[in-house]
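Long-time lurker, first post. I've been practising inverse folding by hand and with some scripts of my own, and I keep getting stuck on stretches where the structure tokens seem ambiguous. Below is the full token string for one chain I'm working on. Before anyone asks, I'm not after the true native sequence, just a reasonable design that respects the backbone. If someone could post their per-position residues I'd love to compare against what I wrote down in my notebook.
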């Protein structure tokens, strides 16, 4: 249920207050009254009204002074103020606007005109609140995304810590994959999903026993069957998280091969998502170029020759050409 707009009337004359109360009594407003500037400021601070109807000619603190204090108060500064006064000269109007009034109406006022002015200011204020709420939601959404991304970074670091042999691998391949995706002309939103997917590309290995994941020798056939489940694990775990669904292509498909001999689904050619095809080259490049306890990393030329040899087999030929021409590894 929408709350009725609150109107604060600040006027030292009882007749003027009664006149405004009679005019607005049947309107959908909640009315509050103050007999002086200081009292009005106190009530405004307590209720944060939607609009203030402010008389100018008051003793001790006139309406211009009250309006100025309202505008300089960060808690009250955005409340609309409608000045109502017997002063009708140009200088008084300018003084009111300089003090921060949103509108100005002269006594004796026309009741229909006052209602129209009041409704106009309240309508603009409502629109302003809608814009503010949208901006707040946008900011909250951005903060939530930032928190999600920091969580993803934490997951990727935990994965690297689990497998000391590939420490630093995730950050390296993520950085290079993003560069290659940029070189491919992909838009920023798509690249952001690729960044997330690259960070989480091996999250499914959390479901692989250490005895297999850290085995110093070659895996046997039964162990390979278990190892090949890790992309499927990634899909099962991440597909239920709506935020991460657009990032699933890499964790689920980065072991697919252009010729259809990959896993877990044996996708072939363009059936493989573009993000996974881009990542596959970077992932293999890093694996071959990095030292392992059981072998030294290959030289740059040896890695390049291998990737070129696998064009049309393991890798998308167009992505191989892009990788070769952009030299993102050394950039």
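-- Answer (accepted) --
I ran through it position by position. Result:
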């Amino acid at each position: 249920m929408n709350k009725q707009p609150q109107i604060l009337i600040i006027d030292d004359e009882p007749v003027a207050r009664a006149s405004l109360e009679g005019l607005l009594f049947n309107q959908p407003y909640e009315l509050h009254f103050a007999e002086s500037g200081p009292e009005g400021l106190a009530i405004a601070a307590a209720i944060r009204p939607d609009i203030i109807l402010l008389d100018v000619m008051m003793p001790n603190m006139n309406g211009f002074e009250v309006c100025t204090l309202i505008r300089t108060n960060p808690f009250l500064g955005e409340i609309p103020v409608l000045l109502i006064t017997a002063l009708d000269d140009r200088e008084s109007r300018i003084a009111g606007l300089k003090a921060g009034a949103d509108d100005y109406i002269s006594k004796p006022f026309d009741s229909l005109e006052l209602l129209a002015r009041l409704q106009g200011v309240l309508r603009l204020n409502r629109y302003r609140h809608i814009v503010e709420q949208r901006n707040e939601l946008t900011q909250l959404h951005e903060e939530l995304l930032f928190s999600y991304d920091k969580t993803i970074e934490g997951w990727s670091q935990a994965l690297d810590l689990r497998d000391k042999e590939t420490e630093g691998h995730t950050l390296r391949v993520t950085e290079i994959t993003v560069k290659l995706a940029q070189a491919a002309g992909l838009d920023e939103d798509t690249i952001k999903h690729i960044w997330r997917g690259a960070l989480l590309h091996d999250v499914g290995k959390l479901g692989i026993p250490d005895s297999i994941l850290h085995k110093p020798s070659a895996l046997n056939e039964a162990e390979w069957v278990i190892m090949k489940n890790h992309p499927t694990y990634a899909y099962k775990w991440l597909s239920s998280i709506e935020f991460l669904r657009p990032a699933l292509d890499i964790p689920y498909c980065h072991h697919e091969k252009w010729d259809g001999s990959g896993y877990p689904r044996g996708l072939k050619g363009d059936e493989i998502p573009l993000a996974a095809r881009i990542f596959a080259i970077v992932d293999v490049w890093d694996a071959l170029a990095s030292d392992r306890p059981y072998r030294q990393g290959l030289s740059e030329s040896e890695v390049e020759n291998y990737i070129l040899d696998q064009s049309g087999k393991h890798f998308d030929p167009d992505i191989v050409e892009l990788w070769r021409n952009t030299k993102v590894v050394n950039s």
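A couple of notes from the structure itself: The domain at 6-135 is CATH 3.40.50.2300 (Rossmann fold). Residues 98 and 278 are 60 Å apart (CA to CA). Happy to go over any region you disagree with.
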